[in-house]
Amino acid sequence: MNPSPVISPIISIADIVDAARVIAPAAVRTPLLENAALNDRVGRRVLLKFEGAQHTGSFKFRGAYNRLARLDAHERAAGVVAWSSGNHAQGVAAAARLLGIPATIVMPADAPAIKLANTRALGAEIVTYDRHTESREEIATALSQSRGATLVPSFDDPYIIAGQGTAGLEILEQAAQVDATVGQILVCCGGGGLTAGIATAAKARSPGTSIYTVEPAGFDDTARSLVSGVRETVSPDARSICDALMAPSPGALTFPINQALLSGGLVVSDDQVRDAMRFAFSALKLVVEPGGAVALAAMLASLAPPCDGASVVILSGSNVDPVAYAAIIGDIAA
What we know:
disordered N terminus
């Protein structure tokens, strides 16, 4: 089928193809997996895009490397500043180390210890904040301005979105290799960068494919925004185990793309996420963090609409706190 016309003024399929070229020497082409136990349980063919196999354990390395690789020599010397609950932090830190760029990351003080430790181990400076009372964007912006450093948003940047979209290109190529037509893709969603990138790639190459966001209850701002037509916000009282998906609202750049391309938004509970993590461990033999398990949770809970062709589920990350993970997985025996 011929590619569809350009449907977003923000990024195009050409931008994603170029991002794939840029990140190819550094990024992992993550596997697209199929599991008989999962297919039997949900009664349909499911393909799993396991981004936990990417550098730093999540898809975030894709966009981070694509963004940082575009900096000129002066910008690289001045360094970069980013904000993140952990996965973007590690992606930026890893890309910065590979490219020889100083990196400072603004992270919540209550981020999983493993994410804080891994980010430090990659050589980044960490500035912590209280996610419930302080603005990470304001802190990071002030730091970048005072240092003359480049600000690297976690999702609202064309290069970041295009970099994440390379996962979408891989999905379609890998699905074709196993004689699968992709009927729908379920994407874990925080600020919407991964969704926007994958949707742009998928709709350009396979216009009939439906794209759905999956979010944790209380942080379903994209699902609500798709219904209302405006960017909704998260209540300051909202809480979830899905620390990677706590963006306060859809992005100014990502939402128009998702609004134009998505078929809808799905919402899962923390208990459904825990069930998905246990299933991933016991049946799939994969470690998946809470935010990375929401799309699988939606599939296991029969929330995904029926479709022609295979359903693709994004497992977006594997960076889970060991103590929290042990508590969740320990319930399998019970």
